[in-house]
Amino acid sequence: MKSIPNKVASRLAAGIKKFQPILADAKNRDCNEADTVDIVKDILSETFGYDKFREITSEHAIKGTYCDLAIKLNDNTKPCLLIEGKAVDVELKENQINQAVFYGVKEGVKWIILTNGLRWQVYKIIFGQPINQELVLEFEFLKLNHKVSSDLQSLYLITKEGNLRCCLEDYDAHQQALNRFSLAATILTKPVREIIRRELRRVSPNAKITIEEIESALRKDVLKGEVVDDHAPKVLEAQKKLAKAQNKAAKKTARADDSSTPILASGSPFAENSAPVPEQPPV
After folding, report:
1. Phi, psi of 41 (to 5 degrees)
2. Dihedrals φ, ψ of 113, to 5°?
3. What is the pLDDT of residues 89-116, one digit of tens each?
4. Sign of the C-alpha dihedral computed for residues 223, 226, 230 and 236 taken in this order
5. How far apart (Å, rounded) are the C-alpha atoms in residues 266 and 277?
6. With contact defined as beta carbons under 8 Å apart, do 84 and 57 qualify?
7. What's the CA gap between 222 and 233, in Å, rounded?
8. Which pLDDT does position 88 carry in this prediction?
9. How does pLDDT run across 181-220, given as a tens digit for each residue?
10. Which residues in 131-196 belong to E strands, given as ranges?
11. What angle, rounded to 10 degrees, do the helices at 33-46 and 6-28 form?
């Protein structure tokens, strides 16, 4: 994960200390949705670093309806982040997520935040058939510790500075690489199974183990359940990403091999099957 600039880390820590008592008081008073969204807007400005008047848009119009808040950077007309706010005492539920995703799909925005001020959920919209969403990041604002670096790192992902550095994209890619579906797909590849067979032969030199037997054992006894279901969407997605990466690596290796092969002129004494250079007659 990318390091947090000291200035941003200080702002995040100050924001946690300032807004935790404000949110706790709002919870005790059962603040309505409008008041909660006002607090969220202040958090976006003072803690996350967005310009309150130029980069945070309230009641952003989307196809005849409105999203509570939208973040626009670099004078773009299209938002990079949509925020759907709920009252501080409202528990976040799936139908609220669907509403926020609807806004994102209509606007063509990939990242959605659903929050009641206390709980923050960051979702990535998966533009496929069908449209889906995936929870990428979640935190409880009242449980944050301004002295804990991992808490500051979580907040940094959705700051203005983190947004400009694509930190949320990088974090999501990192999480995707380490999820159980990606790991299972990698373990089941032929090169990894060959390594496993080699190591097993060291343990049992007389055992004649095939890589097909290793795959069967992995699927049956080690990588159980949905991670080896070849029809599951997440498994197919992991396999597709892995195949794409392998093809890219293979093409890169092929280009490197081609560029390292010398191209020799006809008649060169180093060229394969070149004709012998005739001996010069003595003067």
Report:
1. -65, -40
2. -115, 130
3. 999 987 788 878 888 888 889 999 999 9
4. negative
5. 11
6. no
7. 20
8. 96
9. 889 889 999 999 999 999 998 888 888 899 999 999 998 8
10. 132-140
11. 170
83: β partners: 69, 113
Q: Which two tokens stand for residue 141?
A: 């604002």
Lookup: tokens for 11 = 């702002």
For 209, how many CA atoms within 13 A lie in the half-sphere containing its CB? 21
Contact 211, 190 (CB under 8 A): yes
Q: In what order do the strands lie in the sheet with 111-115?
A: 56-62, 65-71, 81-85, 111-115, 119-126, 132-140
DSSP 200-262: HHHH-TT----HHHHHHHIIIIIS-GGGG-TTSHHHHHHHHHHHHHHHHHHHHHHHHHHHHS-
CA distances for 145 relative to 13, 24, 87, angstroms: 8, 15, 23
Q: Which two tokens stand for residue 65?
A: 């309806």
Q: How many CB atoms lie within 10 A of CB 245?
A: 12
Determine the Cα–Cα distance for residues 69 and 82; give it in Å rounded to an integer. Answer: 6
Which tokens is 72 given? 């626009």
Exposure of 260 by Cβ count < 10 A (0-12 exposed, 13-18 middle, 19+ buried)? exposed
Q: Residue 125 phi/psi, 5° resolution?
A: -85, 130
